[in-house]
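To whoever picks this up:

The nightly regression suite flagged Protein-L-isoaspartate(D-aspartate) O-methyltransferase as changed. Nothing in the input moved, so I suspect the structure step. Input below, exactly as stored in the fixture:
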Amino acid sequence: MKDTFRHQGLRQQLVNVLINKGIKDPSVLKAIGKIPRHLFMDSSFLDHAYQDKAFPIAADQTISQPYTVAFQSELLQIKRGDKILEIGTGSGYQTAVLCELGARVYSIERQHELFKITSRFLPKLGYRAKKFVFGDGYIGLEEEAPYDGIIVTAGAPYVPKPLLKQLKVGARLIIPVGDDVQIMNMITRKGPKEFEQEELGEFRFVPLLEDKN
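Regenerated output under the current build:
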């Protein structure tokens, strides 16, 4: 669990890469610059930890590309104390970014192996979600709704209706939609039944699967 000056220097280089790619939110950049991403990865990938790339983790999943994490986080426009639902905990890296931004995070993971690893690992780094759930991201977490924002970290073939219902009015759902290549969608709840949808470019994610595994 070491975080050396070398790692810190590599993180600052990564922050510069993200700035050059258009990430502007200072609190998102600060979070990326602070969180030791190498600790979220298999030791065989440590040399790659601060490249702007996705890498494999357990259960055939990936740790998202830093640019994607920063892009989605920036779209959420998190204010300290916001209640955020995260669909797909994965390695917990995105969870850590949300915590650094001051969000109260409720996170769902469907892969039991990953759920066990991440729910033990994140608190060791000082990141505590309000609730970690082993469950199906398609149905969200209704008992804690409504949310100030929802972030989906896997490619969904369609937008799950329960997630739309669990948004506060004025809140945003950030979700990649599509099969092989996904289009990042930002859906803002404008009223009880009114939603505004905006498409924000192509990304690649692992698929969002239904049911627990």
